[in-house]
Amino acid sequence: MKKLVNVVIVLGLVLSAHAVKVKKCGHDHNESYVDINSIDVEADKLSFPGKISLGVDLDVSRDLKGAQIELEVTFKRKVAWIWITIPCIRGVGSCTYDVCKLVRDLTEDGCPDDLTSNGIPCECDKVKKGSYTLPQQVVELPDLPGVMSYLSEGKYKIGLKIRDKAADKDLACLSVEATIDN
C-alpha cells in the first residue's frame, strides 16, 4: 500500500501542477495495446495533504491475460539551468512500479465500487479488449514526508511508460512537462 501512496504522490505532483503539457510519446498507435485518450485533472491548488480530482479514458486493443504491467517513471527537475534526474528514493522519483501488484495491494479488501461500477477490473489478467472510462474521482494526497517536501515546487519533465514486461512491449507512453508553484 505504501508504494501505491508513493505513485499517487508522484502522479499528483505531475498532473495537478499549474502549468502542464502532456503528450503521447514513443510508440506507434497501431502497435500499442493501450491508447490513452484523455486524462482529466482538477485541483485548485496542489497541497499535501490535499485532494485532486482525476479521470481517465483509454482503449485496450487486446486482452491482457498473462501480462506483467510496469509503470516506468523518469522524473527530472530543473535546477538552475540544467535538468537533474531525481533518483528512486523510497519509491518516489525515477522508479519502476509493478502495476499489477499495486492494484492487488489496493484491492485486498475487494475491488472499489468506483472501478466495478464502471466495468474496470481490479486484476491485470481480467482486463479485456475494449474501452475503459473512469469518471472524475477524488484522490486524497497524503502529507509529504520531510525529505520529499523539496518536490513541492519547481519545473519538471516526467516520462511515464507503461510496459508489459512479459511480452517486452511498450503499451503506452506519456511525456509531461509541469511547473508547480506552492
From TrEMBL:
Q: Which Pfam families match?
A: E1_DerP2_DerF2 (PF02221)
Superkingdom assignment: Eukaryota
**Gene Ontology molecular function:** enzyme activator activity; lipid transporter activity
Q: Which SUPFAM superfamilies match?
A: Ganglioside M2 (gm2) activator
Gene3D superfamilies named in the record = Ganglioside GM2 activator
Keyword field contains Signal: yes
For whether the record's keyword set contains Signal, the answer is: yes
Renumbered to this chain, the signal peptide range is 1-19
Sequence ranges assigned to domain MD-2-related lipid-recognition in this UniProt record? 22-178
What UniProt keywords are attached to this protein's entry? Signal
InterPro entries registered for this protein in UniProt: GM2-AP, GM2-AP_sf, ML_dom
Q: Which terms does the UniProt entry file under GO BP?
A: ganglioside catabolic process
- Full protein name: Actin-1/3
Which GO terms of the cellular component aspect does the record hold? Answer: cytoplasmic side of plasma membrane
